[in-house]
Amino acid sequence: MHHFAYRDGALFAEDVDLREIADKVGTPVYVYSSATIERHYRLYEAAMASTAPGKPAHVFYAMKANSNLGVLKTLAALGAGADTVSEGEIRKALAAGFPASKIVFSGVGKAESELAFAVEAGIYQVNIETEGELDLLSKVAQRLGKRQEAVFRVNPDIGAGGHAKITTGSSANKFGVSFEEVHRLYARAANMAGVRIMGLAVHIGSQIREVDAFEAAYTKMRDLVLALRAEGHRVDRLDLGGGLGIPYEVPKDFDHGPGLIEAYAGMVAKLMQGLDAELGFEPGRLIVGNAGILLTKVLHLNPRPTKEFLVVDAAMNDLMRPAMYEAYHEIWPVAEPAEGAKTIAYDVVGPICESGDTFTAGRELSALKPGDLIAFMTAGAYGASMSSTYNQRPLVAEVLVKGDKFAVTRPRQTYEELIGTDRAPPWLP
Ligand code: LLP
Predict the structure, then answer these.
(1) What is the C-alpha to C-alpha distance for residues 417 and 395, in angstroms, rounded to an integer?
(2) Can you tell me the distance from the alpha carbon of 80 to that of 103, in angstroms, rounded to the nearest whole number?
(3) For a Cys-Cys bond, which of 58, 141, 165, 387 suits 194, CB 3.0-4.6 Å?
(4) Class of domain 50-282
(5) So what CATH class is 4-31+290-420?
(6) Active site annotated at which positions (predicted)?
C-alpha cells in the first residue's frame, strides 16, 4: 500500500499534485511520501515487537536504501535505529537525529579511521565480518580507552534474493565469517580488551519474497547460538538482517496488507521462542521502496520501423536499478489515461550515451508526447541513494511530501557544485 494515487485525472503524492512539484522543482525529481514511510515502519516495528515478547526488538533502518535527510528524520522521529555501512552514513545518521546508541555499523571492509569514528561516537554495535577486523577494532577501541560492543556477522551459506548481484548469504559471497570459524573467533575475542562480543548477525540477501530461505538461515543461527552458549560464550543478541522484498509489479488498486511481514514475524517468533536473545532487524527496501517515485518528463519521441522510443529526462545515473539488475519499475503517466485508452509499446530510455540506459523495452503505455510527465513507481529504495553524476548530469532533486505540504529535502545539484570542485593540475594552463 502506498499514498500515490489518481485524483481528478492527475497523479498525487498524498494531497500534493505531482504537476505542482514538477512546476516548482523541475524534473527529474524523486518524490517521497511521509505517510507511506510511517505506515511501513509502524507495521514492521509492531510485527517485529511480537517476535520476542518481553525482550526489545531493535529495528535498525538500513539507510543505504534511502539516505535522504527528510526520510532519515522521519524515521528517527518514529524511534528507529540506523544500520550503517560507512563513516559517511554514521555521520549522516547522527546529523539526522539517530542517537549513537541506536546505530549499528555493518559492512565488509571497514577502514581503521571509520572504526575509530564509530567507537568514539559510542555506537551501539559493530557487526564484525573478518578476523582482521576483529583485531583492528580491538586495537582501535583500546587506544581510545573503550570497549566496543560487537557481534560476528556469520555467513550461513544460504543465499537468496531477487538477483544474483544482491545475494549475500551464500558461502560463495564475500560476506561474513564462516560457521566453522566463529567458534574460534568467539574464544579469541573473550581475551580482547577492546571488544565485547554480544552475539551474532546474519543477512542473506535482498528482495526476498518468501520466508523459506530466511527460515533455513535463522534455524542455523539459532542452533549456532545454542552451540556457542554450550561452549560457555555469552550470546545475548541476534541481528537477523534485512532483505524482505516488496511487490514491484502490482495492479493499482491492490492492497498488500501486512501479509509477508506477518508471515516473516510469525516464523521468527516460532523459531526464536525461548532463546532469550535480543533480536535486531535491518530492513531497508521494505520501509522506503514504494514510498518513493522518480518523476520524469518526456523529452522526445523517436519512432522506428519496429519500435517507438520514448526519451525521458531521467537516465540510468538517476535510477540505476533497471540497467544494473534488469529491475522492473511500473510507469504511471501523471495524467490519468482514460478508461480503455489505446496503448503503444514504448522502449523508455534516458539521454545517456549507452544502450544500457534503457528503463524498459516494449512497455504498453497510453500515448505520450513531449512535455508529458511520467512516474517510475517503487523507486524509494536504492534509487537516489545509488545515483551518480555520469555524463556530468547533476544529482536530481529530492522532495518529501507530508499531507498537503512538500519540501525540497535535497535541492538539485548546481552546475557549480558539479564541476566547480575539480582542480586543474599545476602543469596545465
Ligand atoms: N543489512 C545488510 C547487512 C545489508 O547488506 C542490506 C542490504 C540490508 C540490511 C538491507 O536490505 P533490504 O532490507 O533493503 O533488502 N541495490 C540493490 C539492493 C542492495 C542491498 C544491499 N544490502 C537493489 O537496488 O535492489
Answers:
(1) 10
(2) 9
(3) 141
(4) alpha beta
(5) mainly beta
(6) 353 (proton donor)
C-beta neighbour count of 40 within 10 angstroms:
25
In the structure, how many helices (H) and strands (E) does the chain have?
12, 21
Q: 318, 356, 301, 287: which is closest to 26 by C-alpha?
A: 318
- Domain borders along the chain are 4-31+290-420, 50-282
Does residue 260 line the site of ligand 1, with CB under 6 A? no
> Per the structure block, which three cell numbers stand in for 108?
565488509
**CA gap 25, 393 in Å, rounded:** 16
H-helix or E-strand spanning residue 177: strand 177-178
Extract the runs of DSSP E, i.e. beta strands, from 53-109.
57-62, 81-84, 103-105
Strand ranges in 188-326 using DSSP code E only, listed in sequence order: 195-201, 237-239, 278-281, 292-303, 308-312
Local confidence pLDDT in tens for the 429 residues of the chain: 899 999 999 999 999 999 999 999 999 999 999 999 999 999 999 999 999 888 889 999 999 999 999 999 999 999 999 999 999 999 999 999 999 999 999 999 999 999 999 999 999 999 999 999 999 999 999 999 999 999 999 999 886 777 777 677 677 777 889 999 999 999 999 999 999 999 999 999 999 999 999 999 999 999 999 999 999 999 999 999 999 999 998 765 555 555 899 999 999 999 999 999 999 999 999 999 999 999 999 999 999 988 899 999 999 999 999 999 999 999 999 999 999 999 999 999 999 999 999 999 999 999 999 999 999 999 999 999 999 999 999 999 999 999 999 999 999 999 999 999 999 999 998
Binding-site annotation, residues? 243, 282-285, 321, 325, 354, 382
Task: Catalytic residue, from 230, 338, 353, 424: name it.
Answer: 353
Indicate the SS3 state at residue 370.
coil
Cell numbers for 256: 498488500
pTM score, whole prediction: 0.96
Ligand 1 pocket residue status of 110, Cβ below 6 Å: no
Answer whether 203 contacts ligand 1 (Cβ < 6 A): yes
Residue 390 φ then ψ, to 5°: -50, 140
